[in-house]
Design a protein that fits this description.
1 helix, mainly beta, two-stranded antiparallel ribbon
């Protein structure tokens, strides 16, 4: 298996060297560092809903309160004619409070439960050689603020997936569109990646003790990013990540070969401003990880709330 990974990595290196020199002999303009420094984008929104009823209300309804915070930010800079750095950060967190009817007919507020939770940080360094594709190196962290599957035991930043990758990247559109009201940014990359998945496992529920468990794998990774900005009030951000593992640290003890299946993470974020400070947002995510579940998992969040565009 190690020989197979080494051969795949060698192929990627050879492809990188050959493709990046495809247009080397052509007259091209080297990208220049942005004189204004970083290209920054930061927006966040907070949405909440609430309902309550008096003790003599008829109909069986119960009170509830939920809130959700989301943030999507990016920072990019041409550090030099040869190096470009791009960072992105997506954050999401929310809680739902609800009442439960007791035997005596009274309503009691229950412990809050999560309705969304995400930390997604990624950094990409691109070597701008002006070839058909450019070499890149990337690091990505995906985790949650805490694992709420067992309410009594909060396992912070679990599970956490760390990915290091390198390969080739092509910029199809850089955000400058011929149409005055539309900007398109499209980037796609293919490379070899290494992943570490760190989970906090419960050993004793009564004693609330946990232990950390880490698995490692290596394989091929494909990532495509698309951003559409329509005017000043509407924006779509899409990200498709495909990962095909070629080796797995637990392959000898795994009861099946599910780890060999392609993992899919397809995210969609659509935001639209209603007024200067009111925004609607739609987040849809499709996940497929055969080791977790044989079927595709879908997450959808729709909300309207106060939004702030800082940059």
């Amino acid at each position: 298996m190690k020989q197979q990974i080494s051969k795949s990595f060698l192929v990627i290196i050879i492809a990188t060297l050959s493709l990046t020199n495809t247009s080397y002999g052509e007259e091209t303009t080297q990208p220049k560092p942005d004189s204004t420094g970083w290209k920054l984008s930061l927006d966040g929104s907070l949405a909440a809903t609430q309902s309550s009823y008096s003790s003599n209300w008829q109909g069986g309804e119960l009170g509830s309160f939920n809130w959700t915070f989301t943030s999507n930010s990016s920072a990019e800079k041409q550090l030099s004619p040869k190096f470009n750095l791009s960072n992105s950060l997506k954050l999401a967190f929310g809680l739902t409070y609800s009442q439960k009817r007791l035997f005596d007919g009274t309503a009691k507020w229950q412990r809050p439960e999560k309705n969304t939770d995400l930390i997604d940080l990624e950094s990409v360094v691109r070597v701008t050689l002006n070839g058909f594709v450019d070499p890149y190196f990337a690091g990505r962290l995906r985790t949650e603020f805490y694992d709420g599957s067992v309410i009594a035991i909060k396992r912070f930043f679990s599970p956490a997936t760390i990915t290091e990758s390198g390969g080739v990247l092509r910029v199809f559109a850089d955000g400058n569109s011929s149409e005055a009201h539309t900007k398109v940014t499209l980037k796609s990359r293919l490379g070899f990646g290494l992943r570490q998945i760190i989970t906090s496992e419960i050993i004793d529920s009564a004693a609330e003790t946990t232990k950390s468990n880490t698995t490692n794998d290596g394989g091929l990774e494909s990532v495509t990013d698309l951003i559409l900005e329509i005017g000043k009030d509407m924006k779509y951000t899409g990200k498709l990540t495909l990962y095909k593992a070629l080796s797995f640290s637990e392959s000898d003890t795994s009861p099946n070969d599910y780890w060999k299946a392609v993992d899919v993470n397809w995210e969609h974020i659509l935001t639209a401003k209603v007024t200067k400070f009111i925004q609607t947002s739609l987040y849809v995510q499709l996940l497929y990880d055969k080791q977790t579940d044989k079927g595709a998992r879908i997450k959808q969040t729709l909300g309207m709330g106060v939004s702030v565009n800082i940059l």
